[in-house]
């Protein structure tokens, strides 16, 4: 069977599977009519189908990652389509969460690397080597249908990596044993804990190594949520956790029913925390925000820029004068009140930027190679973030881009001829032939390169700035 026939067969198989799934009832009354035994049988059958679907998704994600390898640069699949990473491409096209996309790419890459081991890279001529050879039994179990990608991910994360006291062969044996335990019905969470315990058993002398590994895995991520809130996820190694836990306890312990016997000088503060109307989690959030603010202002040697954190908030002149309507914080999706704007402006610096009826800034800026910080502030107000479609990078992550290139088109650093692009999309626009133009009505149009769209149909670039939306409504 050649490659083309194999691809056609996969398509036909998926079509048949989708047709079969469409026959399954989604009427809730049918499920309520099931006996307990029948319901458990349905759960088991669905688990089999889910494992198969998850495995297919991982193989697809792994192939996307293979075609988006760093060695391919901007010609890789993900970057050619405008995505920074294969994980972002998987998340967008498959409609899954970021974490699911990351796991799918990780396990899919493992399976593909196992299949490619020993083959020659047609681009570099190098022989492919598997980066995690101790997980070969895991890859084999996934492709045979005996192990779900969720179980595979648990084994990989739980076992860790080789070290001087633990060889690749030893970890491979442990991985094979864990695959057998998974086949016996152990769920992914239990399997992860079992993998960690097994690592301890085979690596009694590796305490320091595991400590360094945990330290290496420390991470802090900031994510905006659809409901206008944001989430900060901090994965801490034990030493960092001990420091943070001490601060957390000192900020909330009296509220949580902490120790009763404290120093006399601390009783007033303890009572104030206990009687505070805020919840425990609200107290903790406010305490850590204040500590970050004070710390950044006291010592900003580890930060880009200096001083306390800056909050950029804006509203139209009419709304400020009338003290009605909404204001918008840069980088945040949801509106805030004019009262909040007034409170923040009371202790800060404020500037006024004029726009005409078409939303074009009246101050066009100076004729120079780079946009000034003041111009970038205006662009941030105008665009609200990276203008490339499906990119949600906030203004702080962007660079000013000349729609008429500085050298090629003798473009000028005017606000009207500038848009915001994150670093990835800025490079993509310059290197891959994406073109932006402004029409007579002040609208901006992005034309993709022919390899993305042979017809090169322009797509209108829309501002993410809620203030500009408010302004457009006022002048319409």
Quick structural summary:
Helices cover 50% and strands 9% of the residues.
Given helix and strand content, the structural type is mainly alpha
Number of E-type strands? 10
Helix content: 40-55%
List segments where confidence is low: pLDDT < 50 over at least 5 consecutive residues.
363-369
- The overall number of domains is 3
Protein model, in words:
The chain is mostly helical and 476 residues long. The chain has three domains: 3-204, no CATH class; 220-298, no CATH class; 373-475, no CATH class. It is 50% helix and 9% strand. The protein is built from 19 helices and ten strands. It has a three-stranded antiparallel sheet. Helix 8 (149-159) packs antiparallel against helix 9 (168-183). It is globular and about 70 Å long. The protein starts with a helix and ends with a helix. Mean pLDDT is 81; it is low at 363-369.
């Amino acid at each position: 069977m050649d490659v083309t026939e194999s691809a056609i067969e996969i398509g036909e198989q998926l079509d048949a599977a989708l047709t079969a799934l469409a026959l399954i009832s989604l009427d809730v009354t049918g499920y309520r009519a099931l006996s307990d035994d029948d319901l458990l049988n349905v759960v088991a059958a669905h688990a089999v189908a889910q494992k198969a679907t998850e495995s297919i998704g991982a193989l697809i994600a792994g192939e996307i990652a293979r075609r988006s390898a760093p060695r391919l640069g901007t010609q890789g699949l993900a970057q050619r389509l405008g995505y920074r990473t294969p994980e972002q491409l998987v998340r967008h096209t498959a409609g899954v969460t970021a974490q699911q996309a990351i796991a799918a790419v990780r396990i899919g890459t493992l399976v593909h690397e196992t299949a490619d081991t020993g083959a020659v890279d047609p681009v570099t001529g190098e022989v492919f080597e598997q980066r995690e050879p101790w997980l070969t039994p895991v890859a084999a179990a996934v492709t045979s249908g005996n192990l779900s990608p969720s179980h595979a991910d648990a084994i990989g994360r739980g076992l860790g990596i080789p070290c001087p006291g633990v060889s690749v062969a030893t970890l491979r044996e442990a991985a094979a044993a864990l695959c057998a335990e998974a086949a016996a019905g152990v769920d992914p969470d239990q399997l992860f804990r079992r993998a960690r315990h097994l690592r301890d058993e085979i690596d009694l002398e590796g305490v320091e190594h595991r400590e360094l590994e945990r330290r290496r895995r420390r991470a802090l991520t900031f994510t905006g949520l659809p409901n206008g809130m944001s989430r900060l996820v901090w994965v801490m190694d034990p030493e960092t956790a001990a420091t943070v836990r001490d601060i957390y306890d000192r900020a909330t312990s009296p509220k949580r029913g902490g120790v009763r016997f404290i120093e006399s000088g601390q009783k007033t503060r303890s009572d104030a925390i206990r009687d505070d109307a805020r919840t425990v989690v609200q107290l903790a959030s406010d305490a850590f925000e204040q500590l970050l603010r004070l710390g950044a202002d006291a010592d900003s040697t580890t930060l880009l820029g200096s001083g306390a954190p800056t909050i950029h908030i804006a509203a139209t002149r009419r709304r400020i004068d009338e003290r009605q309507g909404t204001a918008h914080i840069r980088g945040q999706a949801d509106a805030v009140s004019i009262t909040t704007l007034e409170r923040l402006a009371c202790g800060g610096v404020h500037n006024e930027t004029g726009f005409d009826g078409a939303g074009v800034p009246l101050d066009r800026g100076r004729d120079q190679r780079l946009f000034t910080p003041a111009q970038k502030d205006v662009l941030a107000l105008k665009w609200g973030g990276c203008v490339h479609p499906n990119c949600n990078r906030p203004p702080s992550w962007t660079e000013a881009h000349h729609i008429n290139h500085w050298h090629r088109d003798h473009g000028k650093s005017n606000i009207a001829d500038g848009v915001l692009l994150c670093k990835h999309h800025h490079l993509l626009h310059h290197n891959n032939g994406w073109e932006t133009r402004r029409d007579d009505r002040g609208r901006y149009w992005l034309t993709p390169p022919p390899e993305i769209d042979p017809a090169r149909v322009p797509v209108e670039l829309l501002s993410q700035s809620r203030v500009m939306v408010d302004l457009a409504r006022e002048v319409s």
